[in-house]
């Protein structure tokens, strides 16, 4: 474990199927690839990146509550819950650190039901869509930049 700033990277349902599920949309990389990439990126940039994935909504809510209590930044790909879960949105509303909403695909270029997000109103750090797995490192980079002094 790193001595850096703790960041939770939380992934919702079906993301454990990366590399198998619709590779034409989500790519060929696996969740293990994503985890290795984010943890290594975090270590190189002074962040203690803790990766988690669940297919169980209550578990995700518990992790969001943990982040709210700890005040740590969250990078969240809520997957299908983004568009359906008021409970996930309510948990995001309680966060005290920055929240980055990340989607591997461009949800706005997909089915109409994916255009609404219960997470977006609380994404104080930003919303990154359609950038593939690189969207996660863009979010982590923003967390690192957040700790740097203003040059103005």
Explain this structure to me?
With 152 residues, this protein is of the alpha/beta class. Helix content is 38%, strand content 18%. It contains six helices and five strands, in the order E-H-H-E-H-E-H-H-E-E-H. The protein has helices at residues 23-26, 31-44, 57-70, 81-84, 86-93, 134-146, and strands at residues 5-11, 47-53, 74-77, 99-103, 126-129. A five-stranded parallel beta sheet has the order 2-1-3-4-5, sandwiched between helices. Helix 3 (57-70) runs parallel beside helix 5. The longest helix has 14 residues, at 31-44. The protein is globular and about 35 Å long.
Count of helical regions: 6
SSE class: alpha/beta
Strand order of the largest sheet: 2-1-3-4-5
Structural Rg:
15 Å
Shape: globular
What is the strand tally? 5
Order of helical and strand elements: EHHEHEHHEEH
End-to-end separation in angstroms reads 34 Å
Round the mean pLDDT to the nearest integer and report it.
90
| Beta fraction | 15-25%
Q: Can you give the helix content as a percent range?
A: 25-40%
Task: Enumerate the spans where pLDDT stays under 50 for 5 or more consecutive residues.
Answer: none
Main sheet record: 5 strands, parallel
């Amino acid at each position: 474990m790193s001595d850096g700033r703790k960041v939770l990277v939380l992934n919702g349902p079906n993301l454990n199927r990366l590399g198998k599920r619709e590779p034409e949309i989500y790519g060929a990389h696996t969740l293990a690839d994503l985890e290795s990439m984010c943890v290594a990126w975090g270590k190189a940039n002074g962040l203690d990146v803790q990766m988690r994935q669940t297919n169980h909504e209550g578990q995700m809510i518990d992790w969001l509550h943990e982040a709210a209590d700890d005040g740590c930044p969250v990078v969240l790909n809520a997957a299908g819950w983004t568009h359906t879960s008021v409970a996930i949105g309510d948990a995001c509303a309680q966060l005290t650190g920055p929240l980055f909403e990340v989607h591997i695909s461009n949800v706005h270029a997909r089915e109409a039901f994916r255009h609404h997000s219960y997470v977006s109103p609380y994404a104080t750090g930003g919303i990154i869509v359609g950038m593939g797995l690189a969207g996660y490192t863009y979010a982590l980079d923003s967390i690192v930049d957040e700790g740097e002094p203003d040059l103005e």
